[in-house]
Amino acid sequence: MTARAAESLDDRNAAALAELAALITARYPGATIEVRPGEEPGERFLMAAVDLEDPDEVLDLVLDRLLDFQVGEGLPILVVPLRSPQAEAAYRERVGLAP
Fold first, then answer.
1. How many other CB atoms are found less than 10 A from the CB of residue 57?
2. Tens digit of pLDDT for each residue in 28-85?
3. Of the candidates 13, 81, 95, 96, which lies 20 to 30 Å from 7 by C-alpha distance?
4. Which domain range does residue 8 map to?
5. Number of domains in the chain
6. Is residue 99 part of a domain?
């Protein structure tokens, strides 16, 4: 991949990540968003921690747009929904896993 192609991918990745983060924080204002590099060139993980027992609701929200980016535009972006520390603690207590 040329340097110019890599820059283009980074710009497109950045725009896609910003759009996905905006979708998530618009629905879940308390969400914590972190972007981490993946193992493959250009691959990015958007980690979204939300105050939900079932964080997969985040995927329901962004799945169509995420697939547009992945399949339609060839962007190596993954969204990883997580429970916030508070939601994780409440979940663990509810299911009897709390210390």
1. 13
2. 999 999 999 999 888 999 999 999 888 899 999 999 999 999 999 999 999 999 988 8
3. 81
4. 3-94
5. 1
6. no
Phi, psi of 74 (to 5 degrees): 70, 25
- What is the rounded end-to-end Cα distance, in angstroms, of the chain? 49
Structure tokens at 25: 């924080």
Say if CB 19 and CB 65 are below 8 A apart. yes
The three state secondary structure string of the chain is: CCHHHHHHHHHHHHHHHHHHHHHHHHHCCCCEEEEEECCCCCCEEEEEEECCCCCHHHHHHHHHHHHHHHHHCCCCEEEEEEECHHHHHHHHHHCCCCC
The span from the CA of 25 to the CA of 6, in Å, is 28
